Amino acid sequence: MKKLLMITFLLMATFTMATAQKQAQIKFDKLTHDFGTFSESSPVVECTFTFKNVGEAPLIINQAVASCGCTVPSYTKEPIAPGATGAIKVTYNGKGKFPGHFKKTITIRTNGATELTRLYVEGNMTEAK
């Protein structure tokens, strides 16, 4: 009986310590960017999503993946300290794509309390004349 109580106590103490750890928290200025209308003759457009680590531990971006090969995200590989800011640059290349409206997703994975965040870029590429 004493062993059972001791094991229960140790498990509860471990669980309490694990949940009390400080965590990073990512907060973006915006989650969507509209490129507006641009011509097929200039098919490459870029935007930057800025964010802040509002948590209490360093923030690490583990992965940034776009929904399609025409959209390429680039991001800081170093940990972002609490209170510091960072950026994710997104490049859309419409070369070889059909003109018209598009909407792409960039999935961000971090070590933060919110592990997954989705960013969106959209626009309208018009036919070159």
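The record above closes out task 2.4. Task 2.5 opens with a second protein, given below.
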Amino acid sequence: MLKSERLAQIQSMLNRYGKVEVNNLCRMFHVTEMTIRRDLNELEQQNLAIRSHGGAIAPPETVITERPYQTRITSHLKEKEAIARLALPLIPSGAKVFFDSSTTVYCLARLLSNEQNLLVVTDTLTTALELNTRTSISVMCLGGELRKNSNSCTGMFAENMLHTMYFDCSFLGVYGLTEDGYLSTPSTVEYSLKRLIIERSKKVVLMADSSKIGTPSFLQLGHISEISTMITDSGIPRSFIECCQKNNTEILIADIPR
């Protein structure tokens, strides 16, 4: 393989997954660590990568899909955990609930006790394995194509399963929110799944920290008027709070520990 081809493939992986590791690249391209380090340094000089310990990460503006799950779970973690604590009392005993692939929703899953009697459906292996340790919670995991960035299942099989279900309450995250209440996602497969969940739930709880406010992602997913309860943190702009109130969406604001 030519060096130019290798650099192009590394750049594509950075854009898709958000990060690369030297050891994995060595195995993939059958070259030495020194060669890969030179490649990453060259990409950094072109502002196409940011060198990190053991590899490189993509500059934020170049990532064209969702960041890897392991990266997202550590971002704004205090806010996510505080939001999850506010969401916990909203889960009624004996309910049929849906937990999506959001890392904020995963923080909620970790808070559930072994005493709560629930049926939880999720599209995410990480959340399913976490909840499956609770003996009183029945867990159903959607089938379908397993996505590498989120450990979630999507596609025709997952959507066909959802068409047979109704939920008392669903807990969702979102990639983007505008100040006037529009929800968005960069993913076409996520769009279809989340639209189905919203339509088949008596109550929808949106869990999103204030960093999600800003420029919308590729696809308009819905509007805050379709959401029963919005849970966020105190960094949210006043204009968004007023938008929720105008659309009769309950808004809960978490205090963030310092």
